[in-house]
Design goal:
Elements (H helix, E strand, L loop, with lengths): L1 H23 L17 E2 L22 E2 L6 E4 L3 E6 L4 E11 L7 E8 L2 E10 L19 E3 L4 E11 L2 E10 L4 E10 L5 E11 L17 E6 L2 E7 H6 L2 E6 L3 E4 L3 E7 L4 E8 L5 E6 L3 E3 L3 E13 L2 H7 L13 H18 L2 H15 L1 H16 L1 H10 L4 H14 L9 H19 L23 H14 L8 H18 L4 H31 L1
Parallel strand pairs: 3-8
Antiparallel strand pairs: 1-2, 3-4, 4-5, 5-6, 6-7, 7-12, 9-10, 10-11, 11-21, 12-19, 12-20, 13-14, 13-16, 15-18, 16-17, 17-21, 18-19
Helix pairs in contact: 1-9, 1-11, 4-5, 4-9, 5-12, 6-12, 7-8, 10-11, 10-12
Subunit structure: Interacts with the Sec translocase complex via SecD. Specifically interacts with transmembrane segments of nascent integral membrane proteins during membrane integration.
Membrane topology: Multi-pass membrane protein
Protein name: Membrane protein insertase YidC
């Protein structure tokens, strides 16, 4: 029925409103970090180990001693990463993405991990347990051959060495690979004593709640917090508030743990076989940590061993993430319509490979979607044409039985039956397109490939709103023209609401990313052209009779 079709359109406006509020109402959380926090005074950050009987309990948050950390950091540069490693503990305190800029104006590398007052986000790793170096109230100070390294070949290893005790040499090795955003962190332990060496490897991410330092011109922050996987659930996420209420703990064979933000991610992926204990919890002074501890590593007297994990810091590249860890690509979170969004991204990526421009790829994807919906849409437009033809008679019935709603509905149903009108046919394309529209919204919102991706002329970033609002205004004009082709709702109130639809859509789409508006503009344009084509076909068929 006509009222149902209009109700669905109004429902779509509600969906758009909900999405735009999700998009634009993000308020960056205030950092709870004390302003006095600095690199020169950081607490000891060994993980809790109460589930492992052989490992001494971690120092409580309120009793952690301060350690004077050297500012003479070890700097590593690759084509993808700029990294700073603290020789005290061997923590990764800075990661800047050279191949991703902070903003288009400055062209500066994007800072992902950093350690400064009011914004702390670092990757820590170490050894705990009976012979560990990080669980006795202080952290080890490593030696390195140099303070600056640059990748010039296929790979680069940066070794930090420590003479733990007579006969025990520990090397903490950071391995960088050309073209990758991964850092392999491994401990090489040479035990030339008469007793065995025992300990646990841990890797964790320590962070405050401050907002990421990326440009968010009207963009959303869909999720900020911890993500991981476990045996009975492929993808688990906990924001800071969740961790404040309930600590996270799970034992997983393999697994991974990640810090997730818009477009980018950092993650620890254990490479040691066995069961790892994953955890997430608040710390003192507004910090949070989430990470893992490995199974106990035992090195016999006179033997050597190697163990560790891979640390990733970079964009949410689905292909790379799926190769790195099982289900790690789920951190590209498409929501409950992922089963629609994933094929849409595959098609979009294919079109980009063919056309070389993400904007043109979106247009090509729009044409593909409209092609898939061609026949349902044609049925809808034929139904609209028929309804448009009989609008005067429908209006006459409404006026004749204005005081008797039951008789009015009966007369209209008789008219529909007599003229073989299916009023429900006009609702089908709207019902079909709503989940596709929502899935496409999340796909475009989560795709880092569109960040800073230019289209043409003034559209230099498809991930943010059109700076001059040309696309949403053009979309509103097309929607207005298309509305002229539709039958006028007999109900005056519905007619007024439908008149304002183009204005409402235009207003809300002003805050949407240009890539999504580009899709809706061409979707409306192609729909209008198809509607005109169907109408003319009906007129030609009528003229032949």
């Amino acid at each position: 029925m006509d009222w149902l079709r209009n109700t669905l359109l109004i429902g779509m406006v509600g969906v758009v409103m909900a999405l735009v509020f999700q998009w634009s109402n993000f308020t960056p959380p205030e950092s709870a970090v004390a302003q006095s926090t600095s690199r020169a005074a950081m607490p000891l950050d060994t993980p809790a180990t109460d589930s492992v009987s052989d490992v001494p309990s971690a120092i409580s948050n309120d009793q952690q001693p301060e350690i004077q950390i050297s500012t003479d950091l070890i700097k590593v540069t690759t084509p993808q990463l700029y990294v700073e490693i603290n020789p005290v503990g061997g923590d990764i305190e800075t990661v800047s993405l050279i191949d991703h800029t902070l903003d288009q104006e400055s062209g500066d590398p994007l800072p992902l991990l950093l350690n400064r007052p009011g914004n702390v986000y670092i990757a820590q790793s170490g050894l705990i347990g009976p012979n560990g170096t990080d669980g006795s109230g202080s952290r080890p100070t490593f030696n390195s051959e140099a303070r600056s390294y640059q990748l010039s070949g296929e790979s680069l290893s940066v070794d930090l060495t420590l003479e733990q005790a007579p006969g025990v040499t520990i090397t903490k090795r950071f391995t960088f690979t050309e073209g990758e955003h991964t850092i392999d962190v491994n401990y090489l332990i040479d035990n030339q004593t008469a007793t065995e060496w025992r300990g646990y490897f841990y890797g964790q991410i320590k962070r405050d709640t401050s907002a990421p330092l990326i440009d968010n011109d009207g963009a959303m922050q869909p999720f900020l917090g911890m993500a991981t996987t476990k045996q009975d659930e492929n993808f688990v996420k906990r924001d800071f508030e969740d961790l404040s209420e309930t600590k996270y703990s799970a034992n997983v064979n393999g697994g991974w743990v990640a810090m997730v933000q818009h477009y980018f991610i950092s993650a620890w992926v254990p490479t040691t076989e066995g069961t790892n204990r994953f955890y997430g919890e608040p710390m003192a002074n507004g910090f949070y940590r989430f990470g893992f501890t490995s199974d106990q590593q035992i090195i016999a007297a006179g033997e050597s061993a190697r163990f560790g994990a891979t640390f990733y810091a970079g964009p949410k590249d689905q292909e790379k993430l799926s190769e790195l860890g099982e289900y790690l690509d789920l951190t590209v979170d498409y929501g409950w319509l992922w089963w629609i969004a994933k094929p849409l991204f595959v098609a979009l990526d294919l079109f980009h490979d063919l056309l070389g421009n993400w904007g043109f790829a979106i247009i090509a994807l729009t044409i593909l979607i409209k092609g898939l919906f061609y026949y349902p849409s044609a049925i809808s437009y034929r139904s609209m044409a028929t309804m448009r033809k009989f609008t005067p008679r429908i209006q006459e019935i409404r006026e004749r039985y204005s005081d008797d709603r039951q008789q009015q509905q009966k007369a209209m149903m008789e008219l529909y039956k007599q003229e073989k009108i299916n009023p429900m046919a006009g609702c089908l394309p709207i019902l079909l397109q709503m989940p596709v529209f929502i899935a496409l919204y999340w796909m475009l919102a989560e795709s880092v490939e569109l960040r800073h991706a230019p289209f043409v002329l003034w559209i230099q970033d498809l991930s943010v709103k059109d700076p001059y609002f040309v696309l949403p205004i053009a979309m509103g004009v097309v929607m207005f023209l298309q509305q002229r082709l539709n039958p006028t709702p007999p109900d005056p109130m519905q007619a007024k609401i439908m008149q304002f639809m183009p204005i409402i859509f235009t207003f809300f789409f002003m805050f949407f990313p240009a890539g999504l508006v580009l899709y809706w503009l061409f979707n409306s344009l192609i729909s209008m052209l198809q509607q005109i084509y169907v109408y003319r076909g009906i007129e030609k068929d009528a003229a032949k009779k």
